[in-house]
Design brief:
single chain; seven-stranded parallel sheet; binds 2-amino-2-deoxy-6-O-phosphono-alpha-D-glucopyranose
Length: 255
């Protein structure tokens, strides 16, 4: 379904578990469109229930590592795919199917070395895989998408970035007792906008201000997620707490 005038479709659901039905429907829809679509995943606690659901789909054989090509948004700088705390490590721990895809070469990891040549090669691989057909997204409490922190220009692709203080705090637990990283490699906002379909999830009161800024604030790098209002095929899934600051005119109702 396409939405004109840059307004994402917004649905308020019971919570993260209820959202997995919608997310699975989105994935099935991408698979039904033929070929082997490139599907890009986001990490984070937002997707805990989704990764459990995906893992169960793989385990039961309802989903196979041959069905699609997978990728993801970002990696901590200097992190190898197997390194604890890293994004690929998170994905493969949470969903064994991603590990199987990585071993077969059908999961395209973001190069943690951040070198310009590696990033160009990664972008070329995504492009050879047909470009991202379906992009799952979370949102940072400061309005970031992937690791595009406030102030990041809308126009850039994969790049190395310095993490905001709140982002480092949010990552502290996963690296304890070590310090969280200071830098990451991330898909740019231009990379995210290039996806054919975007599905963003946000749950809990901690995301309410960022969600409100994304949907109702200025379309401006001060809220990186506001760039999604320049895309005409975006679905936003919220729970009531994350939707608390959003005006009724933006909401499509329950599901
Ligand atoms: C991280 C990731 C984002 C993610 C966000 C929210 O920093 N780079 O892609 O959407 O934080 O994480 P969580 O779902 O844990 O709130």
């Amino acid at each position: 379904m396409r939405h004109d005038h840059g307004q994402p479709e917004v649905r308020v659901l019971a919570g993260a578990a209820a959202a997995t039905d919608v997310l699975l429907g989105e994935l099935r829809g991408a698979l039904a469109s033929g070929g082997r679509p490139l599907v890009s995943f986001a990490t984070g606690n937002t997707f805990t229930a989704w990764f459990a659901r995906l893992a169960a789909e793989f385990a039961s054989g309802r989903l196979s590592p041959h069905d699609f090509v997978g990728t993801h948004l970002d990696e901590y700088l200097g992190h190898a795919p197997t390194q604890r705390g890293g994004m690929v490590h998170e994905l493969t721990e949470r969903c064994a199917g991603f590990g199987a895809m990585l071993a077969r070469g059908t999961f395209l990891p973001v190069p943690g070395d951040g070198a310009a040549m590696s990033l160009a090669a990664h972008e070329a691989r995504l492009s050879r895989a047909g470009g991202v057909q379906l992009q799952f997204l979370g949102i940072g409490r400061n309005g970031h998408l992937a690791f595009n922190e406030p102030g990041t220009p809308f126009e850039i692709g994969f790049h190395v970035t310095e993490l905001a203080a709140t982002t480092r705090e949010d990552a502290r637990a996963r690296f304890a007792p070590d310090e969280p990283p200071t830098h990451a490699v991330t898909a740019g906002l231009a990379s995210i906008l290039a996806a054919r379909r975007v599905v963003l999830c946000a749950f809990g009161a901690g995301k309410a201000a960022a969600v409100r800024a994304m949907l109702q604030g200025p379309v401006d790098p001060s809220c990186p997620a506001s760039v999604l209002r320049r895309h005409d095929n975006v679905l936003v899934l919220l729970d009531a707490a994350a939707a608390a600051g959003v005006g009724d005119q933006h909401l499509a109702g329950g599901g």
